[in-house]
Amino acid sequence: MNQFYTPTDHFSLLPALLLALFGCAILMLDFFVLPHPRQKRWLIFFALLGEFFAGLALYRQYRFLEDQSIPALRAFSDGLIIDGFSIFFNAIFVAAAVLVAIISYRYLEVEGEHHGEFYGLILLAQCGMYFLASGTELVTIFIGIELMAVTFYILVGFLRSDRRSNEAAMKYLLLGAFSSGFLAYGFSLLYAITGSTRLPKIAAELAQRPATDPLLLLAIVTTLVGLLFKVGAAPFHMWAPDAYEGAPTPVTAYLSVASKAASVAVLVRLFLGTLAPHRINWEPMLAVAVVLSLTIGNFSALSQTNLKRLLAFSSISHAGYILLGLIAGNRTGLTGICIYLFVYTFMNTGAFLVLISLRQKGMTGDDIDDLNGLIHRSPGHALLMALFLLSLGGIPPTAGFIAKYYIFLSLVETGHYALAITAALFVAVSIYYYFRIVRAMFLNEAGQLLPALPGWGARVGFAVTALATLAIGLYPEPIIRFAGTSLLR
Amino acid sequence: MDAILFFLFAAIAVVSAINVVVQRHPISSALSLVGVMGSLAVLYLLLGAEFIAAAQMIVYAGAIMVLFVFVIMLLNAGAEKSPRKGWILTAVAMPLLVLFLGMVSYIIQRGFPNAPLVVFGQFTGGSPKDVGMALFTRYLLPFEITSVLILIAIIGAVVLARKEME
Amino acid sequence: MNFLDLIWLIPLFPLAGAATMLLIGRKLDPQGHSDVALAPALAAEHGGDHGGGHAHAHGEHHHPATRRLIAFISPGAILLSLLFSLGAVAQLASLAKKSHEVILYTWITGLPFHTATGALSTFTADWGFLLDPLSSVMILVVTFVGFLIHVYATGYMAHDGGYYRFFGYLNLFVFFMLTLVLANNYALLFAGWEGVGLCSYLLIGFYFHKKSAGDAGNKAFIVNRIGDAGFLLGMFLLLSLTGSIQFTRVNEVLNSGVFHAETAGFGILSLTALFLFIGATGKSAQVPLYVWLPDAMEGPTPVSALIHAATMVTAGVYMVARSNALYSLTPETSAIVMGVGAFTAILSASIALVQNDIKRVLAYSTVSQLGYMFMAAGAGAYWVAVFHLYTHAFFKALLFLGSGSVIHAMSGEQDMRHMGALKDKIPTTFKTMFVGSVAIAGIPGLAGFFSKDEILWQVFSAPGGSKAVYIVGLITAAMTAFYMWRLMFMTFYGEPRMDEATAKHIHESPASMTVPLTILAAGSILAGWIGVPKLWSFLPESFRTFEHWLEPVFMRHAAEAAHGAHDAGHGDAALEWGLMGLSVAIAIGAILFARSLYGKAWKVDPIEALTGPMHKTLLNKWYVDEIYNYLFVDGLVKGGGTLLGRFDRRVVDGGVNGAGWLTRFTSTLSMWWDRWIIDGAVRLAALLAQIFSFPVRLIQTGQVQAYALVFLLGVGLFLGWRWMA
Predict the structure, then answer these.
(1) Cβ of residue A367 closer than 8 Å to a chain C Cβ
(2) How far is CA A299 from its chain centroid?
(3) Burial class for B155, CB neighbours closer than 10 Å (0-12, 13-18, 19+)
(4) Which of C706, C713, C723 sits opposite B96 (nearest CB)?
(5) Rounded to whole angstroms, what are the CA distances from A231 to A228, A286, A290, A460?
(6) Whole-angstrom distance, CA of residue C455 vs CA of residue C286
(7) Of A123, C293, C467, C478, which shows the fewest CB atoms inside 10 Å?
């Protein structure tokens, strides 16, 4: 230890360190110790162990903050920050990674691509996400984004014999690189203007700049654009439908949930924190992005028959709702964003889990017609899917309603009535396509496809996601309080 | 003198970059890209960042581009055969691009209206010692994380490209 | 036992029943699962509603004894709710302050925020229940009528597949409805609101093998959801204005004088009230969101009776009554409420005049009667609206169940032109429906008279009323009497117009069906006697308990009404007697007119002669349908028949046309409105969707360069726009 790597630094880095370590360990284990396919299940166990330790480290951070009664812990000379916000988001990442890890087993078996690197990559992606939630320094954030992105490029293209998967990875990579260019440009401009890459310093400098500074405007635009790409908001969403459709379904779930959350975390830190004084510069653009996301996401979803594409477009619209909280920008808005992302993790993963259950030898199972009459063939799956779809549509008493409730509330509180009305109308539109699926499941003649008997992974996955969706809807109090801790910024 | 050199190599860089996109044969594109890298290295040098300039040549032009050329040769990729269809895209994209670049340049110019022309040699923080100091003190964290990034890239290459085991 | 503290159990009994049904129901009724296989045969036998347990002598299903358990569990749960409700209300009556709140736990809490008035407030939405006079009326209506309908359904659905599923859904519905009316805040009310919508969807589409049923269910849910957007916005506005969504708190704030009545124009309060009302129009089938209710007749008749006559559709009325403090502060919106109610009433009554399907007549009648309730609410006479809700539940449920009995007797026939002379063959059904029809027509002594007459009087005389609306109400009353008795005469009197086979099958329904009918008939006679007009001063005050019971809830208006009563004096009393006599005379006149047309034998439906040359045009809906098809359907198909066109044709058009096919024979001027404007909006949405997806399909070509181009466009848009600003 020297003055550049203090115990504080170590403490704040610990979860990421553990994840990276376990990720690498999985790679080694896979190669040396467990080459036999049957033994892959030990890798999941190892991954879960890694998540457990990372979670433990997070908890220790949480306790530290509580015991010392300090709002935040800064490390690496303002390079990392440990506060309620970072802990909350890291908790979301842990939840997402755990869920994805346990539901992938059977899917990969069926696809014939059951390689151990998969689980290693999940953890490594999460390592990157850690820096997005906790990073307060531009270079760190950028590398975190790249870490996460590159891992996802690989994960999306994991099904090597499937052309759609290859194509999806290619597109995602090319467009991702393109947008990273913009993001890097934006970051470099911020550095040029303020002379520092540390967010607190940047904030201090920017506060003194006039709002009409054109260079600042350029920086804001390019940064925003780069981040909106990762969130999957229109008009930078074009990669999403292809990527979501082509990727292996567990990866789609992970992508839609965790990648989005991580990008939103950066957006919040940057725009509600550092760039807050220059709201008039970015708020109108964000509003345009939101309206476009809601419009394109919802209307495109109306005509989809492929479930993964439908969920991709709905994902774009959900990005719109989350960004509404950013526009509102007050405490309720921030709480709304946190709750939404938390809840979204469970309900979206749950929906994808149903799709995963349908995947079997010879049948892809991601078309709406494959769900016909599911209530008769497998009522459990149908009811669960209905629950998740209702939650995605925001119907009480599911968790999705609570999340949308807070977002709408924040909009009304800050006087954004037009946006609130628009968003409310789009909720009605979204119900239409969610309900098409419900209708197919309940009212159509039963089709051929029978979901596979759930293995322990799917069982646990279903239990956790369904329980969360219902419980948070019925009794959201604990989550709200938990999200509230993220407001100690 | 500095100005002449700057404009010369900047022009080479831009022309080579456009050439990368315009050329039909991938080898020509790759070589143009080497040209871009070289010119950029010279520009860094002119700015006083000698370490970066050296790294640019060694890593980018020397390693990465060589890798590219190797792969292109191994794949035996021929010239791009089909004519570019979708002229609409080009027709829309080109003016847009020009417009965009114009906007950006205008903004930059407005942002630093009184900026003096760069005086080369004024920046003294580009030596390997200075870069090393920064990397291991202020930017220690990003430096270390980058290693994970590189690891992932390697894994990715292997995962996506290896032969089937069974 | 302290029933008051146990009111949270009241919704839970049916929930337990539903859970039992849906979880173990299949074991109790194994054949229930065979409805899939059964379906085509059923569909072939009778196109319309299943028609209940008619003679399946050819192939009796062997129902295991455990099936009868379902018939006990499901209605039994409602019975328990009923008993607990009775106990709770009895105990409530003995309290001085008639309001009892039970909070189970806090559901959603919020952060402190500033209300519009600047006050700092932290809202909470609890899982809490409020029993006060208003909700007590509602729970008694829901549980009592619900119980009778459940018993009826055990007989009606006896030979249907999906027995356990049906009762599961039915119980689930009652759970949500009770949650809705017992909730102590808007958020929990909304949860129940959505829930009943969901169950309504499940129950309307119960005969899922019929495409029209599925489409009807879809239509219902979607139209409802549009209304719900309004409700949500209204709720949020209310929250930001008053700082709370709990009923007691909101009414406190609104009545405290902080807010001034918006007599000058349309302010934020009026907007809030309007949004809430939009939600009510969806749920309670008012213009413009009423189109789902007639289609909802695709569901089994007990469903129509419970959901679309007695309970769910009244949720909107309940909600408006609950928000009376808000509506009394916003005369503009109240006027809109009254106007919409009146318009809906007369519109749907006019449609009912020419319908030939017995259930459709009743469906449009329901929409019309709901219009009456909103007329009353809009005029400020909230207790009267609730009173009509209460009496309407009795006779409308009676009429629906009776019609079910008729359909059962007629082996599934629903077209009244093929009925006739049934009164001696199914006497109990006849007698009970007779009572119901007399009640709805507004003949003195029966329930419908008291409530409807009070509405007409209030609309005429109250400060918030309007004479024009009164006239509309009066005309509608005439129409109501006419179409109801047209129904009666066509069905029960005259010559039999059915075929031999059906005629032989006619038989009275089993006791499980006739007993509820009788009880409801008794209710239709007696229920109104607790709300007699003040005019009838020869009756003691105990005959006016309904109004007094609800006084604490509508405090403001009780005060105003008291003033009104004192000001009445002799002149007004004479006027009121006169108007009362007028409406009775009109009703009797309409009945006699109907008798003159239908009482004797007729070959061609006299209504055709009555509406004269209009009839053919109206039958063809002013040929709008043809123009419409040409413009929208063909246009869409030609304009790029792709995925979206197919989707539009199959789902949207299919649903609309499925309903349209049936009503095409029986539509009027009003149908023109229904099809062109309302359904056009639905198709417009689809058209818009196609318009929007067209560029998406152009762009989302799969070419990466195109994607990058869009990306650049986006950047340029942001940069350039902000730059201009």
Answers:
(1) no
(2) 22
(3) buried
(4) C713
(5) 5, 12, 11, 28
(6) 18
(7) C467
Which one of B145, B150, B151 makes the best mutation probe of the A interface by having the most chain A beta carbons within 10 Å? B145
Query: Quick one: B84 exposed, middle or buried, by C-beta within 10 A (0-12, 13-18, 19+)?
Result: exposed
Report the pLDDT value the prediction gives residue A388, as an integer from 0 to 100. Answer: 92
Nearest Cβ partner for C718 among A221, A330, A395: A221
Reported as a single tens digit per residue, the pLDDT across B139-161 is 889 999 999 999 999 988 888 88
User: Which residues pair with residue A367 across a beta bridge?
Assistant: A306
Taking the mean position of all CA atoms in its chain, how far away is CA C430?
A: 25
Report the residue of chain C nearest B98, measured CA to CA: C716
Q: Which chains form contacts with chain A, at 3 or more CB pairs under 8 Å?
A: B, C
A482 CB-contact burial (10 Å; exposed 0-12 / middle 13-18 / buried 19+):
middle
How far is Cα of residue C351 from the mean position of the Cα atoms in its chain?
A: 17
Which stretches of chain C score pLDDT less than 50? 32-61, 558-559, 562-563, 566-570, 617-625, 628-629, 632-633, 635-655, 658-670
Extended strands (E) in C89-179: 100-109, 113-114, 120-121, 124-131
In a 10 Å sphere around its CB, with 0-12 CB exposed, 13-18 middle and 19+ buried, how is residue B107 labelled?
buried
Report residue C608 as tokens: 């055709």
On whether the CB atoms of residues A416 and A333 are closer than 8 A, the answer is: no
* Residues C127, A428: C-beta atoms closer than 8 Å: no
Record: contact A121-B152, CB cut-off 8 A:
yes
**Contact with chain C for residue B93, Cβ under 8 A:** yes
Locate the domains of chain A by residue range: 7-484
Q: Which of B104, B142, B155 sits opposite A139 (nearest CB)?
A: B142
DSSP helix/strand/coil, C129: strand
Judge whether A259 and A97 are in contact, CB under 8 Å.
Answer: no
Q: Does A160 touch chain B (CB under 8 A)?
A: yes
Q: Does A217 touch chain B (CB under 8 A)?
A: yes
Question: Do residues A78 and A247 lie in contact, with contact meaning Cβ atoms separated by under 8 Å?
Answer: no
CB-defined contacts A:C, below 8 A: 167
First-to-final CA distance of chain C: 70
Confidence of residue B3 (pLDDT cuts 50, 70, 90): confident
Where do runs of H (alpha helix) occur along A209-330? 214-231, 239-246, 249-254, 260-267, 279-302, 307-328
At residue C147, the pLDDT reads: 92
Mutual angle of helices A260-267 and A214-231, in 10-degree steps = 160
Q: Give mean pLDDT, residues A215-242.
A: 89
Q: How far is C709 from chain B (nearest CA, A)?
A: 7
Q: What is the pLDDT of residues C461-511, one digit of tens each?
A: 877 777 888 899 999 999 899 889 888 888 888 778 877 777 777 888 888
Provide the token pair at C393.
């539940």
User: Tokens for A157?
Assistant: 């293209």
Which helix (H) or strand (E) is C26 found in, with range? helix C9-28
For B87, nearest residue in chain C (alpha carbons): C706
- CB-based contact A62:A424 (threshold 8 Å): no
In total, chain C counts a number of residues equal to 725
What are the chain A neighbours of C718 within 8 Å (beta carbons)?
A: 221, 224-225, 285, 288
A147 touches chain B (CB under 8 A): yes
Say if A396 is an interface residue toward chain C (CB within 8 Å).
yes
Residue A284 has pLDDT above 90, yes or no: no
Task: Tell me which of C699, C711, C712, C718 to substitute to probe the interface with B (most B C-beta atoms closer than 10 Å).
Answer: C712
Give A 217-256 residues with CB within 8 A of chain C.
Answer: 217-218, 221-222, 224-225, 229, 234-236, 238-239, 241-242
Which residue, among C615, C43, C30, C562, has the nearest Cα to C298 in the 3D structure? C43
